[in-house]
Amino acid sequence: MNLLTLRVVADILLFQSVLFFPWWVGASLALVFFFFFSNYAEMLFAAFLTDLLYATPTERFGGLQFVLSLSAVVVFVFCTMLKQYLRSPHLV
Fold it and tell me: 34: helix, coil or strand?
């Protein structure tokens, strides 16, 4: 299997988990896939889809409905920086 085929299979698994499993299953899969693949922006689309399907505005977050999407953007930026740091030759 080449890398593109694995990525397509991972995308299918991620979007099926968004549709059929609790939010934390999809978030966990997205995080694992993020570290396995380079530039895995599909996690942002999965978080947005989860918010579109299941989220409701809550007063705890100031009436914001897209809490998971905003969290996914923050995690995406943080993990991108972490991945760059872990792959840098200065770590050793």
Answer: helix
CA separation for the pair 7, 36 (Å, rounded): 9
What b/e readout covers 29-45, taking b as 16+ CB neighbours within 10 angstroms? bbbebbeebeebebbeb
Instruction: Report how many domains make up the chain.
Output: 1
Tell me, what DSSP letter sits at residue 37?
S
Considering 1-5, 10-14, 53-57, 78-82, the range whose residues carry the highest mean pLDDT is 10-14
Please state the rounded mean pLDDT for residues 22-45.
Answer: 90
d(C-alpha 7, C-alpha 39), whole Å: 11
What is the domain range of residue 38? 3-91
Class of residue 78 by CB neighbours under 10 A (exposed 0-12, middle 13-18, buried 19+): exposed
Quick check: 29 and 17 in contact, CB under 8 A?
yes
